[in-house]
Amino acid sequence: MTCLHLLLTLVFAVSLGTPVEIQRPRGVPLTKKQFYEESKPFTCLDGSRTIPFDRVNDDYCDCKDGSDEPGTAACPNGSFHCTNAGYRPMFIPSSRINDGICDCCDTTDEYNSGAKCENTCKELGRKEREVLQKMAEITKEGFLLKQQLIEEAKKGREEKQGKVTDMQENKKQLEEKVEALRTVKEAAEQPEKEAKERHLKAWEEQKAAIRLEKDKAKMAEAFLELDDNSDGFVSVSELQSHAELDPDADGTLTETEVQGLMGGAAQVDTSTFESVWTNIKDKYHSESQPEEPAPVETPPDEVKEPAVDNDSEPYPEDDISEEDDEDEDDEDDYHEDDDKAPPTVKTPEKSHEDEEAMPPYDPDTQALIEAAQKARDDFEDSEKALRVMDDQIRNIEKELSFDFGPDAEFTYMYSQCYELSTSEYIYRLCPFNRVSQKPKYGGSETNLGIWGSWSGPENNKYLVMKYEHGTGCWQGPNRSTTVKLTCGKETVVTSTSEPSRCEYLMEFTTPAVCQEPANTEPSPHGHEEL
Amino acid sequence: MGLLSVVCVSLFFSSTFAVDRGNFKTCDQSAFCKRQRALKPGQSPYRALLETLELSDSRLTLQLINDNNKVHLLLELYRLQGNMTRVKINELKPLKPRFEVPDVLIAEPPTEPLSVLSKDDNGVVLSLGAENQRLIVSARPFRLDIMEGPEVLLSLNSRGLLAFEHLRLHKDTLDFSLPGVEHVYGIPEHADDLKLKTTDGGDPYRLYNLDVFQYELYNPMALYGSIPVMLAHNTQRTMGIFWLNAAETWVDISSNTAGKTVFGKMLDFVQGSSEKPQTDVRWISESGIIDVFIMLGPKPSKVFSQYASLTGTQSFPPLASLGYHQCRWNYNDQEDVKSVDQGFDQHDIPYDFIWLDIEHADGKRYFTWDPHKFPQPKEMLQGLMDKRRKMVSIVDPHIRVDSGYKIHNEITSKDFYVKNKDGKNYEGWCWPGNSGYPDFTKPEMRAWWASMFAYDQYEGSMENLFTWNDMNEPSVFNGPEVTMHKDALHGKWEHRDIHNIYGLYVQMATAEGQIQRSGGVERPFVLTRAFFAGSQRYGAVWTGDNAAEWDHLKISIPMCLSLGLVGVSFCGADVGGFFKNPSTELLVRWYQTGAYQPFFRAHAHLDTTRREPWLFGPENTALIREVIRQRYALLPYWYQLFYQAHKTGMPVMRPLWVDYPKDTATFTIDDEFLIGSDLLVHPVTEEGSRGVTAYLPGAEEVWYDVHTFQKHNGAQNLYIPVTLSSIPVFQRGGSIIPRKDRVRRSSTCMENDPYTLYVALSPKKFAEGELYIDDGHSFNYDTKKEFIHRSLTFANNALTSSNLCPDCNFLTSSWIEKVLILGASKPSKVLLKMDGKETPVDFEFDTSMSVLTLRKPGMNAGADWTLLLQ
Fold this sequence. Notes:
Low-confidence stretches of chain A: 1-21, 291-355, 522-530
Structural class of chain B: alpha+beta
Shape of chain B: globular
Oligomer: heterodimer
Number of strands of chain A: 16
Distance between the termini of chain B: 68 Å
């Protein structure tokens, strides 16, 4: 059955280098040695009962807290202390004593299981020290880098704040300028408007005079034509020969109807024809030039079509097509989204319409227009400048509003992106913005989350970033990514995984989380001693 | 990751999405079921031609004639050893031979002589030997009655429903009447109550192995497996009907008492006028012959041994497979496996197996490893082996059609694929896309498949890698009802003939492969989803793709109980529920329930969030840890019960009526169960529950709460207040349960640990139990008798360990560290008698609970000894 060594002999090296034997029951840490005195009955550490000392480590659990069996697996809740000389001491659950698996590097947990364990403490210690040293170096350098980052961020922040202040100042000036230019513009536009109206009015009058002239000529001509017998009078019968004048369009122009047109008179002379002309001129067909009135009448087919086109393409279209030249992207969007019609022939026909072009402005008016246009341009330029400045201010303010850490040490990542390429995907982390995944061999990018918040543990929330509300998963949640930050000299994404479906995990190193190295250098002596 | 898996998942769902009922046939939609079910009871057209009777030592043959169409049938009757009768009916001269199911019976059942007691024009009376049992063959119309004394135990074709379709395909029907029976059980797999319901007005219970996506509860729809065995039980007798047919089968149940109210039944009883309760059962199969085994019991245990003598017993699993299994679709890569493994150690939770689902293989090519995710499988397996733990990888029967895939090429070159009706290789869609289905009905195919598990064939495998056979109904995403076309060909037989046994063959060949790779030394462990009668011989079964819902937790109990009744003891449900995310409460409750069910595995769908036991806060981690530890402490008991199941066919997880067959109160209980005879478990399966009412059976019994040792009387409904930490479990007074209370990180680590004996005294201060010990993993218990089997008896104030197998040889370093005697009185002295010496033993007595604790008696677990209480 069980014949267990009750006591374990340890060689403990003190600083003098003289080996001294310290005896204590197996599995008991030095700090608790005083509770296990061979000469006295043992009281369970929870005080629940007292047992003879020979029941300590006798492979039977007497104490509820497991304290009587520090060196055996008898108690379900016990723990075993391994000294691990050369490495770190540790506690393991009692259930790992003699379970055939080497847990303590000093092999003390497997004293009766037949497991072949090798003492690996020295090796582990060496490795750990190396790792620690490396870590310390990284931390040290990282921390220095972090200081720079903080410094830069501070400078950057000040600069930006200064910039914002300056810009706010400039903005004020710009606003004033805009207002001033608006006044100038409005002042220049008033005479322009008046001059243009004058010009237009003069032209309208001119056009009316010409029309009157033409009409009179036509009337005279018509009189002559109608006065078939050239007696200086147009009679009812003479007029009746023009069937097109039939007022009720029943195909016959009766005498009564003609009399109606002639105002009851039997005949009219040139002076009284004027009133008859008013009644008939819209329908009257000249005998000599039957086609002549056509342009005045409803335009023929060839003119009609473009007119319809013009209806479907309202004037703003012209403005848009002007913009099109400037911005091709907009054009694409426009055509794709709204305008499926093929490009239409437009402008050439349009010019036909205004047969009688307005005469050019006189030099005075032209000068006023040019002056007003300049005022408008100036105003718009300044307004645009104001808008740009507003945007700039907003962007900087947005940046300044991010929580870049207690010392703004994360500022430098803003507007940067870091990539990691795996066998299948390229992962992209753009801090404070978004995380994405793009298949290496074709396929579209998937959003793995947009910036949510810092969500590290309470004592340091800046160790974890959370990106949320990414592309939805089929039958699942929206994708999200947790980014764990560790101290490193470089800012690199070191690994990604998808521990749960559509919940991604990214490891990310940055100097920004490097802690100030402890002032006391990790003393190699302490480690050597153990 | 991400996109790739979405593609294959959507493939799956797009083909099986609208599952519900719409995707699966009802009886009305199944031509043969509808037609046969439409037959009404009445005059049977079949007549026995008594002049054709031939009687040999082992069998009686007799021709039947269908007077309507003059077709002759051949009836064969056998009296089988162990109180069973076999009835076979086939066409005398079939136009096309009918399929007779091979490989289910472990041997041709030994017969006993039949003798004719009397014969006249109306029929023949045969003696069935013992107990005044007779078999009466009536000639016109044909019917069979089995009588014991004046009682009719069971009648065949008493309702005249026997039918053979000849010209169409080979449908056949037969009815059974069970006079005096109101409770019938079995015919898994259905997500339904333990006690089978009558099917009048609804669909019959269907047996047709199907991959049912998000199955519904409490209905007779077919699921992944089929065992055509029904048990009939009343206070006097338990009987069984085994309908050996692997084709699609429907089972109709009707009862003459089903419509009656309790009051009506009472009135019948008081008036003494009542007609006897009777259950009528009709079996309808699409093809094959009628081959029925009638197991006459009469005790439940006898029916189990009768059925076991036909189809074999539960395989004796490796001890470790009774521990806790951690599964998920999928552990992403080697790193993931490592970190989950470490998680268990960090949280001090034991486990034995970690599982890899389909994503571990290279493009779903089973027997391979994804080169990016699992580049060093041996390194991973060695890492687990160093922790004395094991792994399971999935190997499904659908094989990716891919000329770059060794397995596919070999199957093709050996011509081992199932054929379609045109004789070409049958192809269907499954996880890898276009897939072939190896013809596992071919012995050569199975031998080749088995050889693929050799360490040099299955690259990256090691002795701690075991196997999971999923999708072996078989699942064919684009097939009718998500399975194989019925006209696919297995040699000369159509798939319709063999459908329900395909899954059994897959597991059979896989288990054989695992045995072979170790040179026949090591026991296999193979989990299957599809199964048939006889599947118990090859490993474990789980209840398929359940959901994280309370009702699914509840149904896990009747589903596993039903399987246990028909031979399959190694049963479990996905802990936590496969689909959806369980609430923390549900997850904890499911662990508590699963820890007390035979196969204990947590599993989760790809789309669920991670749910390793430590992800729900320290309190819940502690609750889950605690119940997993309870499982591990009880492993000696579980192991011994599996040994018993393997030897005798007794189910491990049992309905109460199996041990209390005369107590009618137990007949419909399926929210609690027994583990062996000695532990009664009433899991908490209601959300927000503050208490459960457990029925403690046995008027003469007492039961001890295993957590508090409080004693309760039997034959009562006991209300037990519960908190989230409660899992009500009771030990029967009169039993002795060995435990290993030093729970370690895996069962293998506990191999040599000492035992604590929990002796629960009956009111007569008596108790008995057993202790079984072997190496836990090899066949040496069988081939070399390397095991310890002790009988433990407490009587007359003495606890004695005696040898149940004197010619066995096995040495254990385990010893007895403690004995707890529940319900004891305080002795003045305790002595250990061993090797002719007497030594005093320290003890403590807890008067409040009457628990006597013997401190460190220290004898070897394999020794003879007696502890005397004075």
